[in-house]
Specification:
Layout lengths: L6 E5 H14 L4 E5 L1 H6 L2 H8 L5 E4 L2 H9 L6 E3 L9 H6 L2 E5 L2 H9 L8 E4 L14 H10 L8 E3 L12 H12 L7 E4 L1 H6 L7 E2 L24 E13 L4 E2 L5 E2 L4 E6 L16 E4 L2 E6 L7 E4 L11 E5 L5 H8 L3 H6 L6 E5 L1
Length: 360
């Protein structure tokens, strides 16, 4: 008996393969690799170390994430996608060669007051239609002129925006946003970036000076399609093992609340993973896992440490057999479609209890 609990195997070869695919799609653009949220659950230090020689910059959401990279030896520039939260952080940002987005007047005024040991690289965030962060189109010229005056920042600004519907290929809204961005930055010096994963895959005219790969870097499609259709390989393989195999009678329920009752005599497999590991509690009956060369359905309610699957009455599965929750054999996009939970959420909600193994 050898039961291995929930384990995420993270492949550096898959990661580098995906980045090469991305480079081939946008060969003339610099790469700002998005590693926020612990590199989408894949381990930010491992991912950044594996990719540092292949990218031009990293991007995170919080200063603490950037400082963690610095403390682990990453020397490439790091961009704060949400900008700085407190003007007291500006000297720290300057000392650590961290770049920051500016998206509102409060940040602009803080920069004017700041005393920093060296100029900071600033990217002006422009709201082209996401309506979340960014200066309005009619404020771009004002912010640009004000920022250019400041000795606290480097003379060459960057310009950044974000698509809200890049995965909706039948919508013209992405083209509207791109046109707005190009018009707002016309005749202004500085790198421009608007294409994240969806923009990279579907809107080549939006690649511009820099692209910002996120989810596709990890081998996952930003749409309902599977990453393999774009030449991508899953970087994470989430596995566990059968903890028990039980004979189960027709008409008997399984798990909390008895929400599923077997229509026939069968065998139930108990898998050593649950919502305590970050696997969602409320996935519907039939959500697939991969076991011994076939798909089997989850039945009953996912509990904190276990979930149950219907192995079928003639199954030969045994305790200790590996179960794949998602990975190459079972794309996470398929699990997302069944569960109604975005791939982004599935990978970022894994808990520290999951064993992480970094492999080639």
């Amino acid at each position: 008996m050898n039961v291995k609990p929930a384990t995420a195997k993270i492949s550096s070869l898959a990661l580098k393969h995906n980045l090469q695919v991305i480079k081939e799609k946008a060969p003339h653009s610099k790469i700002i690799a998005v590693v926020k949220a612990n590199a989408y659950g894949h381990g930010v230090v491992f991912v950044s170390s594996a990719l540092e020689s292949m990218v031009d910059c990293f991007a995170v959401a919080r200063l603490e994430e950037a400082l963690s990279l610095r403390s682990n030896g990453i020397i490439k520039p790091i961009l704060l996608l949400e900008g700085f939260f407190d003007e007291k952080d500006l000297p720290i940002i300057a000392v650590n060669n961290i770049e920051t987005v500016v998206h509102n007047r409060e940040q602009l005024e803080a920069l004017k007051r700041a005393v920093v040991p060296s100029p900071i690289k600033v990217w002006l965030k422009i709201d082209t239609g996401m309506h979340r962060l960014g200066v309005s189109l009619d404020e771009v010229d004002y912010f640009y002129q004000e920022l250019k005056k400041l000795p606290q920042i480097q003379p060459h600004l960057g310009f950044v925006s974000h698509f809200s519907r890049a995965d909706e290929l039948d919508s013209n809204y992405t083209q509207v946003q791109l046109d707005r961005f190009l018009q707002a930055t016309k005749n202004k010096e500085g790198d421009r970036t608007i294409a994240a994963s969806g923009g990279i895959l579907f809107w080549p005219e939006a690649h511009l000076d820099c692209i910002r790969p996120g989810i596709i870097m990890y081998g996952i499609s930003p749409t309902d399609t599977v990453g393999a259709e774009f030449g991508l390989t899953p970087v994470m393989n989430l596995t566990s093992s059968l903890l028990a195999v039980r004979e189960h009678k027709k008409g008997e329920p399984v798990g909390y609340g008895g929400i599923w009752t077997s229509p026939k005599d069968t065998k139930i497999g108990v898998v050593a993973i649950g919502y305590g590991d970050g696997y969602p509690r409320d996935v519907p009956e039939g959500t697939p896992v991969y076991l011994n060369g076939r798909i089997v359905p989850i039945v009953g309610r996912v509990s904190m440490d276990m979930l149950t699957v219907d192995l079928g009455p003639d199954s030969q599965d045994k305790v200790g057999d590996e179960v794949i929750l998602w990975g190459k054999e079972l794309p996470i996009e398929t699990v997302a479609k069944y569960s109604g939970i975005l791939s982004y959420e599935l990978i970022t909600k894994l808990t520290p209890r999951v064993i992480t193994e970094y492999v080639d």
